[in-house]
């Protein structure tokens, strides 16, 4: 892990305890709990934030999105919901 990523994490999230740091697909990943939700923050090779992911549940989605999914995928079982927040100011693309 890059010490610069760890420093940038503190700037971005304060003193939230990090459960784990990992190097995945050219990104430093910090896994932590924020507001009771398991969250990961990803930092590029220059320790700049690339994006975050959060585990959610279907009812957390906006009602309009829930209706569209239920209509489009009628008869399918609803699984895990994974929210990805992209840092638009960082050109490092994450593939999920």
Radius of gyration: 15 Å
Biggest beta sheet attributes: 5 strands, antiparallel
Globally, the shape reads elongated
Q: How many domains, as an integer?
A: 1
Assembly annotation: single chain
N-to-C terminal Cα separation, in Å? 20 Å
Describe this structure as you would to a colleague.
- By secondary structure, the chain is α+β, with helices and mostly antiparallel strands.
- The chain has a single domain (3-86), classed as Nuclear Transport Factor 2, Chain: A.
- The protein has 2 helices and 5 strands, in the order αββββαβ.
- A 5-stranded antiparallel sheet has the order 1-2-3-4-5.
- The longest helix is centred in the first third of the chain and has 11 residues, at 3-13.
- It starts with a helix and ends in a 10-residue tail after the last strand.
- The model has no long low-confidence stretch (mean pLDDT 90).
Topology:
Layout: H1 3-13, E1 18-24, E2 27-34, E3 37-43, E4 49-56, H2 63-72, E5 81-86
Antiparallel strand pairs: 1-2, 2-3, 3-4, 4-5
Which features would summarize this protein structure in a list?
single chain; 96 residues; alpha+beta; Nuclear Transport Factor 2, Chain: A; 2 helices; 5 strands; 22% helix
């Amino acid at each position: 892990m890059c010490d610069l990523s760890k420093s940038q994490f503190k700037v971005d999230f304060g003193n939230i305890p990090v459960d784990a740091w990992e190097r995945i697909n050219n990104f430093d990943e910090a896994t932590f709990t924020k507001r009771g939700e398991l969250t990961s923050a990803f930092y590029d090779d220059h320790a700049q934030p690339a994006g975050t992911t959060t585990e959610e549940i279907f009812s957390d989605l906006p009602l309009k999105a829930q209706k569209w999914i239920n209509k489009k995928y009628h008869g399918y079982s609803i699984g895990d919901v994974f929210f990805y927040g992209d840092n638009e100011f960082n050109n490092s693309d994450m593939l999920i």
